Amino acid sequence: MKNIIILTLLFLSVTMKGQNSDFIPDTTVSGIKLFDFVTLKTMIPNINDLIDYNGPGGQADFVNKDATEHLICNFWSNGISEVHIARNNSELKQREKKTKLDIVVFQTESHIRLDMTKNEFIKIKGTKYKTEKAGDLEILKYGLNDLKSSSFLQKYHLPEYYADYTFKGGRLVKIDFGFP
Question: For every residue of 51-92, which 3-state class applies, written as one string?
């Protein structure tokens, strides 16, 4: 057990080298991973038929099991580059073609989900964010943009990662993250 703890601490220290140690980026929503087309095709075998290629890149729209949450995945040539989650029929650009997934709640690997309180959220994601106000919305913005010192960005060979979390009335109402 002691060896497992030591190995975990070593892994985390290497993973976080050159990054904001208070922020660990998410790359997965309910098993759907950024830039992992193989896993995506396993989860959603007909994914190629669901991607709309109108505009730069592609986009696929999904709803959860009870159609209360909306997930938009933006695609580039090698998989999903960005995700957007909000309540269905919210401020996300609505498309007619939405595929229902057998997922109760869209949740990231760090357990970020819609409707959590700002305090619950900050306990997970930390305080190293910038705040933007838009009317009654508060957006907490996290990001990485130093490719030379970020092992996370180096892993994906991309210069920037962003994560924007929108709160209304102290509750998380929208999640956006990925590689712009």
Answer: CECCCCCEEEEEECCCCCEEEEEEEECCEEEEEEEEECCCCC
Q: Alpha-carbon distance 36 to 61, whole Å?
A: 17
CB within 8 Å of 171: residues ≥ 6 apart: 115, 116, 117, 118
> d(Cα 16, Cα 122) in Å, to the nearest integer?
18
- Please list, residue by residue across 48-67, b when 16 or more beta carbons sit within 10 angstroms of its beta carbon and e when fewer do: eebbeeeeeebbbbbbbeee
Contact in structure between 163 and 129 (CB atoms under 8 Å): no
Task: Identify the CA nearest to 122 among candidates 69, 165, 74.
Answer: 165
Residues 163 and 180: their CA atoms lie apart, in Å, by: 10
pLDDT (tens digit, 9 = 90+) per residue, 135-166?
999 999 999 999 999 999 999 999 999 999 99
Element (H, E) at 140: strand 137-144
Angstrom distance (rounded) from CA 80 to CA 71: 12
